Structure formats: C-alpha cells, structure tokens
Amino acid sequence: MRTIRAAAVPLLLVLLISACGQGSPAPNAAETPGQTPGSPSATTSAAGNDGIGRGPTPKPPAKPASFGNPGGKATVPAEGRAEDTSKPNRKIGTGTKASCTSDAVVKAVAAGGVITFNCGPDPVTITMTATAKVRNANGPKIVLDGGGKVTLSGGGKRRILYMNTCDQAQGWTTNHCQDQDHPRLTVQNLTFTGGNSTGDTTEGGGGGAIFVRGGRFKAVNTKFVDNRCDASGPDLGGAAIRVLSQFHNEPVYVVGSTFQGGVCSNGAALSSIGVSWVVLNSVFSNNKAIGSGANPARSGSPGGGSGGAIYLDGNLFTLRIAGSVVQNNTAKEGGGGVFFVSNDRTGTMRVENTTWTGNRSAGFETSGFPGVFFLGARPPTVTGPSLKR
Hints:
Keywords: Cell outer membrane, Membrane, Secreted, Signal. By secondary structure, the protein is mainly beta. Helix content is 5%, strand content 32%. It folds into 2 domains: 9-60, no CATH class; 78-383. The protein has helices spanning 11-20, 102-111; strands at 90-92, 113-117, 124-127, 132-133, 141-158, 161-164, 184-195, 210-213, 216-225, 241-244, 252-255, 258-260, 263-264, 270-273, 277-280, 283-285, 288-289, 310-314, 318-322, 325-327, 330-331, 338-342, 348-352, 355-357, 360-361, 372-375, 381-383. The protein has a 15-stranded parallel beta sheet that branches. Strands 4-6-8-10-14-18-22-26 form an 8-stranded parallel beta sheet. The radius of gyration is 25 Å and the shape is globular.
C-alpha cells in the first residue's frame, strides 16, 4: 500500500485504510469475469457503498467442459476446425439460465446463421421439448456454439437436432437434394445428452442426438453422453449421430469430441450409409450395439447388433481415425469398435496413433483386427499402437 502522510489525511480515514486495505482492491464489476451486470461490485463494502473494503468476492465463472482426447496429436485441416463465432447472427438467452429455453433453441436453429448462447456464467442444461430443425433455405451456414458451458438434453424422449435437405417439410432448395452444398451445419463446444430417436422411422431411423442428410456436417469439441436409438433393426444406428449423404461425398469431420454410453441396435456413437468420416483426437468409450441378428437379419431375428462405436455401410466411402481413443465398446454381433462394410469392396479404413483396447465383438470380427469387422478394398491400415483386445 502507498505511504500516506498523516498531515494530509484525517486520522479516521488513516485508521480505516489501515484496517481494510490489505492488498489492492478487487476489480470492479465491469472488469471481473463472471460478474453479473447490476449486482454489487467487488469494491462494495458489506457496510455500505463508500468504496472502502474488499466487499463480497464475486463467484468465478465455471470452468468450461473439456472434450475429446487431450493427448491426441493429429493435425486438423482447416475444414475440420471450429467455426468463427466472434460475430454471431443471433444469441440464445439474455444472460440468465431461465432465458435459455427449448423454444429459443428451436427458433434460432430454424432461423440459421451463427448462433451462440448467453445463459450466464455457469453451465446450463436445456431440456428440449421439441426437436430443433434446420430450415434448408436459411443459412447457408448454421453454427451452434455452446461455449463449453451448454448441454442440450433430449430428456430421454426425443431427438435433439435434425437436418434433412430432402425433407419437404423443411423446404427444398435444389432439384438434387441428396447432393447440395448447403446447409452447412456445425456443432461445437456443446454437450448432447438424453437424445432418443426410438420409434422415429424417418429415412430409416437412427440419429438419437443428431440426424443429418445432405449438405455438410461437422462436430468439433463436442460431447455426446447417454444417447439412444432403436434397440433392434439391421441397418439403423447412430445413438449420437446418423448421417446419410454429404455434398460431393465429402467427409464428415469429428474433431476433439467425446462419445460415451450410447446405446442402439448398431453404431452406438456414429452411423452412416455411403458416407466418409475423418475422426481426429476424439474418444469413444462404453458404447453398446445391442441389436440381434446382424445384417442382413438372420431368419427369425430383428437384425442388428454391430459396430459398438461406429457402424458404416454402403459402397465407396472411407474412415480415418487418428489421435483418438477407442475403448470398452461392445457389439452383440460384429465389430465391437467398428463395423465397416463396403458392399462393392472399394472402401478403405485407416487407424493412426490411436489407443484401441477392450472393444468386444460377441459374434464375429476380422482376424488380426480385434474389435473390427471389415469388408473393403484391402485390410485396414494401422500405424502407431497396434489394436489390442
């Protein structure tokens, strides 16, 4: 504290400063992270507003959630990185948890553009009472960024997010809906939990948290926990994400993301038909494919049970997993970690610098590749650690 000459300052003020001035004053409300506008500043004394004393210490903002594999070193190309949200088109919420509602999310997603959240300094869970649906004419870019503090929950009752360029109810914008470059949907810095598409047969079903057909899609720094889709069926899947078709067969990027506790007939994290994927610095753990009868379904069975974490089917498509962790996923039939079937045997799969352990296939898998069932152009390429049982 600065030395103050007694001759220049009244004795009472000297005594007050000596008693209360241990250290520098705390920043004011405009400077303190997490300070709610309009609340008492950190320089307000408990005894009054004379500015003397430290006053109540403001609650620091909660630490944002962490996503993906922090030890992953895979290089992320520009097209797989998070989108710039420094100038959002719209914000969900007005600074409080109560203002961040399902209705606000639904309206913002339908309007499109770059969307952020303003729900206050603490983490917030928004339980969706309706599925947020992308309108195909709005955008063309839709970015949903939770800032690491927002969880969208389906409440165990419904799908959370839906985009389909071929759904007339969301508007047709081209005469080739299955192969158009928009909308371009990105989810980032968000958590999705409790999504459930059970019983929704649109486009064959699946996609408990997110369903996408057409345009482009990527997930960056996003967590998917305890999502669900139908428990049986030979070809549906994606408790977290289901994707059908992407513009010019470009890949879906999944970067720095986490998939835990998903349950579905097949592909309890990711599922697609004829779609390529690039998975970087991500984690897949404790996901379960619980269907029975495989694909095509054995006689007398409902089918399913393949791809504990990832289920991919179709003709020409690729899968690359790099810098990731794939562990303790299970399949009642084939491919405890990954089920990959390229029907015309043109597809390829690469696993690079990835920890792969404990992925159990109760029925069948490809010899030499624990936790994988693979049919494609050539055996999967594995660099770095070997796949371990």
